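As the work plan foresaw, our protein records have gained a structure token line. A representative record is set out beneath this paragraph:
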Amino acid sequence: MDIHKLTIAEVVAGLKNKSFTAVQITQAYLDTIAEHDGDINAFISIDQDLALDQARYADEMYAQGTERLLEGVPFSVKDAICTKDIRSTGGATILDNYTSPFEATVITKIRNQGAILIGKNNCDAFGHGASNENSMYGPVKNPYNLECVAGGSSGGSAAAVAADMSVFSIAEDTGGSIRQPASFCGLAGLRPSYGRNSRYGIMAMASSFDTVGPMANSVQDIALLMEIMAGQDSKDATSVPDQVPSYTKEIKKDLLGIKIGIPKEYFDVDALQPEVLTAINAQIQLLKDLGCKIIPVSLPHTKYAIPVYY
């Protein structure tokens, strides 16, 4: 079965038109994990029995015509996010045998829509790192080049999706832990605004900065997942009561007149590689072509950002 770069919409369509069953698609992802994760190390924990039990239930839901939005879609979770059925180590062996008695609100929301949890992804221990080399379970390798890192701290989540071991992954971002590995692995990844998604069930790194968001193969997947995950949670006093917009509709709007600032200090870096600069400039030009207003700005304290953060 070809599962290369499948999106949520493609998996759901295949299940609805009976191109494959939830058990078959789940087994395909489990087989890919078995074949490739020994080299990549994207997973800390995998529960094949749990995954296939969920898949069988998903097939029953499709047979009854009562399927939910994510019915039968295999996904994974950063191991710094608590789940009831699979241990949550946070990437640290001190929690090697810890299985949480509670589950993160965002994960419960995802699972309540029928998504199939197949495992927990490797990460820098408790989020402390930017390369996923600081995990007590070993470093995560980039699926495109095993000599390179996958980024961090959510490197396992990014590597799992990029290597076709998961359709999407839910991760956590304090200072780049979704955005940077998503970039390193060629994915769509979103750090939501603080308070947009509940932080309940997250192993905190910095509570006033931590956010939870998705990684996937398409922006459309990100929008759908945000519609499911977002919203106020009585278990998180910092979650905002604002109405959740239809992100899937919002992404279809044009960008005419949208203002985007380009900080000049981000480009005054000796380590900036020419090919990276070329890629960035190509995206800036694309945004211009789509009607965005590109505005040069200055953030003079940029050089202090990393020392202050760490």
